Amino acid sequence: MRASLIQIAVDEGEPVNSRRSRVASLVREVSARDGSDLVVLPELWTTGAFAYESFAEEAEPLEGPTYEAMAKAASDAGVWLHAGSVPERAASDGALYNTSLVFSPEGELAAAYRKIHRFGFDKGEAVLMAAGSQLVTVRTPATTLGLATCYDLRFPELFRGLVDAGAEMFVVPAGWPERRREHWRLLARARAVEDQVYVLACGTGGTHAGVPQAGHSVVVDPWGEVLAEAGDGEEVLTVDLDPAKVAATREQFPALKDRLLGQAPPPRA
């Protein structure tokens, strides 16, 4: 399968509606040019991950303008689209969530994942947004995706849970800061090695509310080898992946079978 990560540069001077239209066009262009099966966008690319004051103002219902634009882009392009995340305002109680959206090639919503680990400690996202509570996987014809978002990358138990649920490829949209770029690169490889999966980690460029972004979107294989890595600005990474390599890696080096703590992996059918 072929995957494309679109590392968006968030320009604070670009209106959200303009960026939404531009990104939808990028999805179509990249898919047509590269023949992608899966396209991935970053975290909170409509607002910027550190533009805390914009979260409430730009919050959308689940089936809001970003949902509509990305559903159409996925359908037009005929690709699986991980549309990054948006600030979602829940219809049930008005709470805000950092919610990722995944669409099928028919433009149907395949999954929504509310970010579990919110960054900021006692400020920012950690106090402005509610925490999700559900692990989410998406079965595609080629593989099973496990969904996580940015700060989640620091919590390996989440990814163990996704492996136990059958994930063979982690998709991690992010708005990671430049000052902790080496953590981003290290943790992406660590999650790939310890869980013997592909990791597709898609970040942003530009500056969010005065915070320079790390960029350096990266694709890592189940042995921890970096297959492609972006630079600092807006960029597209397109990589050919072999889903069968996950099973082959786990057979050649069956470390997951030796787990003693936590839940053991379920038997394979």
Automatic annotation (TrEMBL):
Q: Can the keyword Coiled coil be found in this entry's annotation?
A: no
The entry lists its GO molecular-function terms as:
hydrolase activity
- Determine if Metal-binding is one of this entry's keywords: no
* InterPro entries in alphabetical order: C-N_Hydrolase, C-N_Hydrolase_sf, UPF0012_CS
- One Pfam family, short name please? CN_hydrolase
Alphabetical list of CDD domains matching this protein = nitrilase_5
Q: Keywords in UniProt for this one?
A: Hydrolase
Q: What SUPFAM superfamilies does UniProt report for this protein, alphabetically? A: Carbon-nitrogen hydrolase (SSF56317)
Domain CN hydrolase, chain residue ranges per copy: 1-243
Instruction: State the PANTHER family in the record.
Output: DEAMINATED GLUTATHIONE AMIDASE, NITRILASE-RELATED
Family assignment from sequence similarity: Belongs to the carbon-nitrogen hydrolase superfamily. NIT1/NIT2 family.
Q: Tell me what this protein is called.
A: Carbon-nitrogen family hydrolase
